[in-house]
Specification:
It is built from 8 helices and no strands. By secondary structure, the protein is an all-alpha fold. It is flat, with a radius of gyration of 16 Å. Helix 1 packs parallel to helix 8.
Length: about 120
């Protein structure tokens, strides 16, 4: 997935920068809510410019939801507890993204698949 993130950084640099600046500026407040417009703009840009991300979101929706739910349920837990409780759902999400990457570009690691699908 690293390749996809590189493409997002390249194709959506303005949106990524705006989101990062908003999060940094609002760390003491409710940055998730305050920076929602910037997050939405970044998500739309990524969906438009990195087809693999859209495919992963569709194919791995259940795994994404399970991992997000685990993180939300354990948001005040220590890193060790978080890892213990959420590692399985993170592994499931990872394996799903790998399957999607392989389906998009068989025989290539996910990062390379992302780069190829966005440059074609």
């Amino acid at each position: 997935m690293d390749g996809s993130l590189d493409v997002v950084a390249e194709k959506c640099a303005v949106q990524l920068d705006m989101y990062q600046k908003c999060v940094i500026k609002n760390q003491q407040g409710n940055w998730a809510e305050i920076c929602s417009p910037q997050r939405i703009a970044l998500t739309r840009c990524a969906d438009h410019n990195v087809p693999l991300l859209k495919a992963v979101k569709q194919a791995c929706a259940n795994e994404i939801k399970a991992y997000d739910s685990c993180l939300a349920a354990n948001q005040s837990a220590s890193e060790e507890v978080l890892q213990e409780k959420c590692l399985k759902s993170l592994q499931d999400l990872y394996h799903c993204t790998e399957r999607v990457g392989q389906a998009q570009a068989p025989g290539r690691p996910l990062g390379k698949a992302a780069m190829e699908t966005t440059r074609a």
